[in-house]
Write a structure and sequence with these properties.
By secondary structure, the protein is an alpha/beta fold. It contains 15 helices and twelve strands.
Length: 445
């Protein structure tokens, strides 16, 4: 089987393996096939001679499994707060169902024939796989098998070679869409050299809107988007929003870099330059910005540049906007953490700041915003209305940004939680606000 350089970093990946990693595990048939197989296995395990002893065994196993799930959930989610938030009721129910199903499979080993024991052992694997896929689908952020395992499967995107100087004035006034304007933009990936920072990152996701794909394309605004942790530099979510917006605005939309501020999805560099986790801040503010200037047909004016982020990336976005107003005149913070390491404050203080509380406090966005005034920055803060762990922090952040002089929009996604609707709704709302600001649409009263 032929090997092709299918990843932007040139790694050779087997064609079949790449196709496998691109399988949709949220809305595609894979999820339903696996859940269906798990259901069949569950029915098989239940169907034994309906004796009183077996029925009691089923009840005890299911109850014990659910009890184990409650115990693990309490320790991991409530006591340790490993996720910095509640994963939500749907995730808990799937986790409890998985634990109960596994307990039932284990109960089938007692007094069973070899064939049933083999089926029970196979069922454990199937239940774990189906539960993991169902929990992942309840979040909706890892849409492919590759993204679930943190593997980039976007192909290297071809970048337009020519740069057309922009006309003066808002772009929507001077732009005339050609007859061959594509209906949608395109996505792909590119490795951004870490020339200055030395920071190790995964390939960045790139989105080029329809207006960027035609001859004599205009220079367009730039958005740098940072996703959550764990997460992937996946351009598909913002592409869906901007394709929709571009369709309503003659193909006009920003060019987007979905940069990787994590490197290792299991670590959080806090979007800072630190000895422990590398120079993530320098990577975003110098390496990514310099690469964008040199390789993308963007408007070379920070008034048209936006730093945006979701969850971990939201904290990064408002922190970087506060520290680098010369680079970013617009900021979008979607369900952002209130400050670096907010879910593991003691560990962050010790590990990154070596016990120096004053240094830690100085890096918190509320204090960064209080230290200066912003005369020409537009900020959008969004959050799920029922995301109780993040709503208070987003309200405080919006108030602090407004007090610092930013033009602020605060918006809550109806019952968006801290999962996919919060991200997609937040992006939709943010660009309603930003399109006139970026010269892509007329101002609205």
């Amino acid at each position: 089987m032929e090997l092709t350089p299918d990843r932007a970093d040139g790694t050779l990946i087997n064609d079949f393996g790449t196709s496998l990693l691109r399988i949709d595990i949220v809305t595609g048939p894979v999820l339903y096939v696996v859940l269906g197989l798990a259901t069949v296995q569950l029915l098989y395990l239940l169907l034994r001679a309906p004796t009183l002893a077996w029925m009691l065994t089923v009840v005890i196993a299911a109850t014990a499994g659910a009890g184990v799930a409650v115990g693990i959930w309490f320790v991991v989610v409530i006591v340790v707060d490993a996720f910095g938030m509640s994963p939500g009721l749907a995730s808990f129910l799937w986790f409890a169902a998985t634990c109960s199903a596994v307990a039932l499979a284990l109960a089938n080993f007692r007094g069973a024939r070899r064939r049933r024991k083999i089926m029970a052992a196979a069922s454990v694997l199937i239940f774990l796989a189906s539960g993991s896929l169902a929990i992942n689908a309840s979040f909706g952020l890892n849409r492919t098998l590759g993204s679930l395992f943190g593997v980039t499967t976007e192909t290297a995107i071809a970048l337009p070679a020519t740069v057309t100087p922009s006309k003066t004035g808002p772009l929507y006034q001077s732009w005339v869409a050609p007859p061959d304007l594509p209906a949608q933009g395109t996505t792909g990936s590119r490795v951004i050299p870490n020339t200055i920072s030395g920071f190790t990152s995964r390939p960045a996701g790139i989105y080029l809107p329809p207006a960027a794909l035609v001859p004599h394309a205009p220079a367009l605004p730039l958005v740098i988007l940072l996703m959550g942790q764990p997460g992937n530099p996946d351009p598909s979510f913002i592409a869906a929003t901007l394709d929709q917006d571009a369709a309503a605005h003659a193909g006009l939309a920003p060019i987007v870099i979905v940069a990787d501020q994590l490197g290792d999805p299991a670590s959080d560099p806090l979007c800072l330059d630190t000895p422990n986790y590398g120079n993530a801040e320098t990577f975003i503010t110098q390496d990514v910005v310099n690469w964008a200037r040199a390789n993308l047909n963007i408007i070379n004016d920070p008034r048209y540049w936006t730093i945006a982020g979701y969850s971990n990336g939201g904290q990064c976005a408002i922190s970087l906007a506060a520290k680098h107003p010369n680079l970013f005149s617009n900021v979008v913070d979607i369900s952002g953490e209130e400050f670096p390491g907010s879910e593991i404050q003691a560990a962050t203080l010790a590990d990154v700041f070596h016990g120096d509380q004053a240094s830690y406090d100085a890096m918190k966005p509320l204090n960064l915003l209080a230290a200066k005034k912003f005369t020409d920055t537009v900020a959008v803060f969004t959050v799920g209305s029922n995301d109780t762990g993040f709503v208070p922090g987003q309200k405080r952040m919006a108030a602090a940004a407004s007090a610092a002089g930013m033009t602020v929009t605060y918006w809550e996604s109806p019952n968006g939680g801290h999962v996919l609707p919060a991200l997609t709704d937040g992006l939709d709302e943010a660009f309603v606000v930003l399109y006139p600001r970026l010269g892509l649409a007329p101002k609205t009263d």
